[in-house]
Amino acid sequence: MKQAKFQSPTGMHDVLPETQKYFQRIYNVVENMANFYGFKRIDTPIVENAELFSRGVGISTDIVQKQMYIFKTRGDDFLALRPEGTAPVMRSFFQHGMFNLPQPLKLWYFGPFFRAENPQAGRYRQFWQIGLEVLEEQNPAVDAQMIQIFYNILQELKIKNLIIEVNSIGDSQCRPYYKKLLSNYLRARESALCGDCKKRFRKNPLRVLDCKDEKCQQIKSQAPQILDHLCDECNSHFKEVLELLEEVGLPYRLNSYLVRGLDYYTKTVFEIFTETITKNKDQEGEQGDESRKSLALGGGGRYDALAKLIGKKDVPAVGGALGVERIIQAMKAIPVKFPAEPNPHVFLAQLGSLAKRKSLKLFEDFRKERILIAESFGRDSLKFQLNKANKLGARYVLIIGQKEALEGMVIVKDMESGKQDNVKIEKVVSEIKRKLKRHK
Ligand code: HAM
Asked: Is residue 83 in contact with ligand 1, taking CB distance under 6 Å?
């Protein structure tokens, strides 16, 4: 088949009608969860001042260095398509003086984000995120509860084999010392690092811990671990988070290399994965060993340092985001069932122009009474319309031909018994209502 001339931009996709039901289900689950935990919805613009991200997310991050869509406006403003939602929420918090509202402030969002990444499975250039943020709260209980909320959302969506990874990446008291240690360690092994990390480690050695390149993976397995170098405050904060996770029975595992790809984090960081286990068959077709694939559904953490980078005041905060396309990928693998769409009770068939005119009005009368009704106003053949009514599973077909239109009548055909009645057009809605009530 010849390809259409225009395609959606690379890495960006249409959300087609058959996928909307996944979006809708995810949205409903998140909205209920957010309401339960007292979060209020916020929407920020899709573009922001680019500096918000270079300062907030960090100048040395891949997101800012390689993945931001930036452009200059005619008025010489330097804007970026938002690559994430946390810095915009913090910007909005300052801009609207939300620090005067009762604290903590709990906000959530659901919308599209943009990163110019190399497109691959589960990685898009426009993707949807669900984010939850709690501002002006430093208690570790909130870190644990944030993880709990994300876990609850995924569980409610019936996603299986969920794994939570947690780590602490310290704060401005202890991280500089650890960074120096790590930097010294990496410098001694610089020649063995991948090309990107040779550059990365000078600006932020933590980025190397995030690198998926095999050479770097080997080096990092012997690297000093941040958990051994946390200051007392970060240490006791993290201990409490872990105790609370245990208290609520969340299945977490420590990952001392989890640093996240954004610079604003302090103390707790987390990611949630779903793991798919495939049993491999050996040459004789017998069940052999297993292969495991994990898909990162979401991540987040505490970001006490972000507010000072973009505003005037310290705001302790914690939050996270889930990727909607990734969740849908996991839901399709289960697979999730959706209830069938309800059949229309009535089908309205018409023949001729006067009949069509009367039908349009009658159709509206049914809508006002909330009776499910279908039509095919674009086709005049009675055979076609009856076939369609049959396919849709409508119990009653209303037929208005030229004669009926002139006499103000409608033929009501019961598709189950085949019986037909003539009913006055003004009476047909109440007549159908009466018949439907009888079937209930
Ligand atoms: P993030 O880890 O960059 O965090 O993104 C969160 C989730 O968004 C990822 O786990 C993934 O599911 C999804 N995601 C990210 N990039 C892509 C992509 N290119 N294609 C498809 N899905 C993607 C943040 O964005 C932070 N703002 C989270 C946060 C909120 N931290 C504190 N508050």
From this structure: no
pTM for the model stands at 0.91
Q: Which of 314, 373, 366, 385 is nearest to 344 (CA)?
A: 373
* Chain segment 377-405, per-residue pLDDT in tens: 998 899 999 999 999 999 999 999 999 99
**How confident is the model at residue 202, as a pLDDT?**
84
Do 356 and 310 fall into the same domain? no
* 323 and 357 within one domain: no
Tokens standing for 97? 């003086």
The whole-number pLDDT of residue 285 equals: 63
- Separation of CA 239 and ligand 1 centre (Å): 25
Angle CA 261–266–270, to nearest 5 = 60
Q: Mind listing the pLDDT tens digit for each residue in 319-366?
A: 999 999 999 999 999 889 999 989 999 999 999 999 999 999 999 999
Whether the Cβ atoms of residue 421 and residue 409 lie closer than 8 Å to each other: no
**Are 303 and 356 in the same domain?**
no
Total domain count, the chain? 2
Of 113, 129, 269, 270, the residue with max ligand 1 atoms within 8 A of its CB, to mutate for a pocket test, comes to: 129
Per the listing, tokens 């058959």 go with: 18
Residue where one domain finishes, among candidates 302, 333, 364: 333
CB-count burial class (<10 Å; 0-12, 13-18, 19+) for 271: buried
The boundaries of the domain holding residue 272 are 17-174+230-333
